[in-house]
Amino acid sequence: MDLNTPLESALSTKKEYILALKEMGLYKVRDILLYFPRGYEDLSQFKKVWEAKDGEIITTKGFLHGIKVVPTKNRRMKLVKAMFYDDSGSECEAVWFNQPHLVRTLEMDKEMIVSGKVQFSYGKYVLQSPTVETIKEVQIHAGGLVPIYPQHEVITSKWLREKINPLLYLTKEFEDILPEEIIKEEGLMPKKEAIREVHFPSNPKKLKKAQDTLGYEELFLLQLNAVKAKEEWKDSRPTDSSSIKMPMDPEFVTAFFSTLPFTPTGAQKVTIYEILKDMERSFPMLRLLEGDVGSGKTVVAMMALLQAVKYGYQAAIMAPTEVLARQHLVSISKFVEEIEKKKMLDSPLNIQLLIGSLKAKEKNAVKGAIKDGQVNIIIGTHALIQEDVEFDNLGLLVIDEQHRFGVKQREVIVKQGSPHVLHMTATPIPRTLALVAYGDQDLSVINEMPKGRLPITTKIVPPEHRESVYKYITGKIDAGQQVYVICPLIDESDVLEVKSVTAEHKSLQERFSQFNVGLLHGKLKSEEKDSIMQQFKRGDINILVSTSVIEVGVDVPNATIMLIEGAERFGLSQLHQFRGRVGRGNVQSYCFLYTNSSSDLTYQRLNAMVDHTDGFKLAEIDLQLRGPGEVYGVRQSGLPDLKLANLLDGILLDRVRKAAEKIVEKSKDLTDYPLLKSAWLALRNGMEE
User: Fold this and answer.
1) Is the pTM of this model over 0.85?
2) Superfamily of segment(s) 250-280+295-425
3) For residue 584, what are the CA distances in angstroms to 31, 47, 554, 633?
4) Where are the domains of the chain?
5) Of 440, 441, 436, which Cα lies nearest the Cα of 642?
């Protein structure tokens, strides 16, 4: 048997358990040994039964005597009872429900460790369904830090402990993929020892070291991937006369600022400086611009577009949808009007829109003009980087809200002449998470909002207050304002007690029959979605009922109210994104969070929305509560599930990044580190799938 042995061959168990393991993604011995506990129950402190409080879970030593099945009036219920004597001589009754097999399997009159809840009933102590384990060298169910695993309907923590423990001898086959110098510098454990300790810890100190070791490896591989991707991006530009250097001209920047009807924030000025300094280099920029909703990313992007055009290059901005592409056209055209009034450039700018809904003749005309170099700024959707679009000399590509940007996408952009690339996202991501998810890019953050912007008022609405909110909405629509309603599902679900978008649309059509209620969801064709959004922007739709497909960045200043059904179903970052769809004008806007949940945890999370308007703060809270995989926008990055890595430790992440850079500097192609290279390639291939 080895790490690649299928679990059906390695484990003595029923077929239903093997099928359940496969549902959990566990197929081989390697998989189950890398299936780590989600937490631990500390059963290391022994206590006498008589010292316990009523309802307390304790761990104690002693022995069982006189086990028997006790009949009950309910034929379906079978009680198993035994007397338990702890090592002080105190006695109590141990009771199990519907486990008659214990009469055969539990050993009597042998010293053992017992863990369970103590109840004081009718003047005597009772141990309710205790876990019983004979004293041995390694305790797996009691007597120490007991692992608690993520469970399945069939697979329990107890079952996993019993199956994983006998396989631990195979951890000797795990090799250290981290370079020896890093293991020594960081004081890490050998990987095989760390895996054993994570499953069955010797003590809290060793457990912490094991978790740190395995978490460090996860982070190192991700940062190595980011460093390698960054190097490949730099190398993608041929070092010849076709340099894309664009020296920064402070007077040109000042002239642009003078065309604006407002003073840019300090954060906007800093990010513009960082981007323009990147564009001075001879290799292409790859930078991520993060900015909360309404922080002014378009101004920053406009300065970058102008910088490219100033030096005779074409510039393009790519949006995820046609609605957003058209919106960018309107915004950029307004900027250009002012720029041309001030005669900042030698000749007028030619701006064109390239989207799928254009007629073939229009498309071909735009493509021809792009190829001939007649167009300065091109705005469009993903169609911009298709094979049949040829640029004359593309110097800058701005990608708005396109999170996924892997090797294949990079290859396409290299074919377009390896332009500078600026990603923009309105999804606030904690810096620590951004370093992992988008570590191949340099990071700029607009963490300051323009002055005078009204904060959106957020309220949690329990079921009994729903009607009063509806009356409030009616008044606002009568006053000419518009409303979004967000629902978690498209169709009715018997499993989840949350409103579906189709049912809610029907209900609101009846409730607000005097208004036009629109419906938007992911199953509609893109042309239908665009048509509905255009109607909403024009004001033809008063209430728009939608799933989470509502586009980030859609600007409808007249929309002032956001209702979110089943708010507990969304993460804080996503709720904040929805909230950002309103508050675009100069009228006070509101966000109402509907929930039927009475859970304290739900209210703790939703109250964070009430208390905080800063998207970066909410993203940090979200990361802490839900983990990186659930933070809105990160799934699209291809980031794998992290088991033990601590993404809240910025100091550690910086240290890991420097270590990865040092290794790549020593061995650019990683030939000196074959195991590390193999693990890195496996990670990269997985992220690209």
Assistant:
1) no
2) P-loop containing nucleotide triphosphate hydrolases (3.40.50.300)
3) 49, 61, 10, 22
4) 1-40+151-167, 45-143, 250-280+295-425, 457-612
5) 436
Q: 413: which residues sit within 8 A by CB, 6+ positions away?
A: 385, 397, 419, 421
* pLDDT tens digits along 266-321: 999 999 999 999 999 888 888 999 888 778 899 999 999 999 999 999 999 998 88
- 491: closest CA among 513, 521, 518? 521
Please name the amino acid found at residue 621: I
- Cβ–Cβ < 8 Å for 432, 647: yes
Strands 57-70 and 377-380: unpaired
| 615-626 helix and 600-611 helix, angle to the nearest 10 degrees | 160
E strand residue ranges, 450-583: 457-461, 482-486, 517-520, 543-546, 559-564
Say whether 271 sits in a helix, a strand or coil. Answer: helix
Instruction: Tell me the pairing of strands 351-354 and 314-318.
Output: unpaired
Work out the angle between the directed axes of helices 204-235 and 650-666 (0-180°, nearest 10).
50
Whether 252 and 344 have beta carbons less than 8 Å apart is answered as yes
End-to-end CA distance of the chain: 30
Q: Helix-strand-coil percent breakdown of the chain, rounded to 5?
A: 40, 20, 40
Q: Which residues contact 347 (CB under 8 A, 6 or more apart)?
A: none
Q: At what angle do helices 407-415 and 674-688 cross, to 10 degrees?
A: 80
Q: How many CB atoms lie within 10 A of CB 282?
A: 12
Does residue 530 contact residue 323 with C-beta atoms inside 8 Å? yes
Residues 239-265: tens digit of each pLDDT: 554 567 899 999 999 999 999 988 999
Tokens 């809240």 belong to which residue? Answer: 648
Could you read off the pLDDT of 24-38 as tens digits, one per residue? Answer: 999 999 999 999 998
Say whether domain 45-143 belongs to CATH 2.40.128.110: no
CATH fold match for the domains 250-280+295-425 and 457-612: yes
Sheet architecture: strand order including 559-564: 457-461, 590-594, 559-564, 482-486, 543-546, 517-520
For tokens 């338990």, the residue is 84
